[in-house]
Structure to design on (268 residues):
């Protein structure tokens, strides 16, 4: 028995956006057919919104555009012939070329059905550690090879059944995440910048604090926590909780919410 949370009814939106972006990059869809701001299917000068940029003004910082590799969505890429595989990777991650993604989030595999298949785990039991399973390590290295400044991020969709004897929000799971991060560094020389909680699942604020403590004790103080990768109204609940909890506020580095229909409240 594994701890699973597929809950990806909206995943097709992400796949569609990435497919449309790559189709434009690869030339299979003319850019003029991509819907513009007016929603008319065209992007003419008259329909464009002008945004004034003032470098002296305060506010949020735009840090880039990224992509997610999770739920076995990238499983076939590693099997492409080398020439075509390298071309796709260049289109994805090479700066000023193609999509030029600046952020890559990968799944922390748990061998659960997380969307289109499973992602292999680095720990099939409490005593098992293998940091060669799966292809996310490879993908992160290929992204870094093309852009050493790419932001690396990770998030679990589920966990093996031995974790917490079936309880996800446990010390076992905090250790599981910490070992994934340390394995990335020690075996693959990858510094992962962020880690999340549990994809599109109600979060536990006490566990977020436990995860922060566990990461700090493991020498991973530089790894930021993204919370809580939920969606719609529940996605922004974490903001009000952080306002009223100084320890939680200190534990969370970034707030992550899924889907464009999730409007950020004034408190954010």
């Amino acid at each position: 028995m594994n701890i699973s949370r597929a809950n990806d009814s909206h995943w097709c939106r992400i796949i569609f956006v990435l497919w449309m972006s790559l189709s434009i990059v690869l030339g299979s869809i003319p850019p003029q057919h991509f819907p513009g701001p007016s929603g008319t299917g065209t992007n003419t000068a008259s329909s464009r919104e002008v945004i004034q940029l003032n470098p002296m003004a305060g506010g949020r910082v735009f840090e880039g555009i990224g992509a997610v590799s999770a739920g076995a969505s990238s499983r076939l890429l590693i099997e492409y012939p080398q020439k075509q595989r390298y071309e796709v990777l260049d289109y994805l991650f090479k700066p000023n070329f193609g999509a030029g993604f600046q952020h890559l989030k990968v799944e922390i595999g748990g061998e659960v059905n997380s969307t289109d298949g499973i992602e292999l785990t680095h720990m099939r039991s409490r005593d098992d550690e293998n940091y060669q399973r799966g292809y996310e390590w490879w993908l992160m290295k290929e992204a870094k090879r093309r852009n050493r400044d790419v932001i690396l991020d990770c998030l679990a969709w589920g966990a093996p059944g031995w974790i917490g004897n079936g309880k996800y929000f446990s010390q076992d799971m905090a250790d599981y995440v910490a070992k994934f991060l340390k394995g990335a560094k020690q075996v693959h020389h990858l510094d992962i910048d962020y880690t999340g909680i549990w994809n599109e699942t109600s979060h536990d604020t006490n566990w977020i604090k436990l995860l922060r403590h566990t990461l700090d004790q493991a020498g991973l103080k530089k790894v930021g926590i993204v919370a809580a990768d939920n969606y719609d109204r529940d996605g922004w609940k974490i903001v009000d909780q952080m306002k009223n909890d100084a320890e939680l506020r200190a534990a969370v580095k970034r707030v992550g919410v899924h889907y464009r229909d999730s409007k950020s409240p004034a408190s954010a």
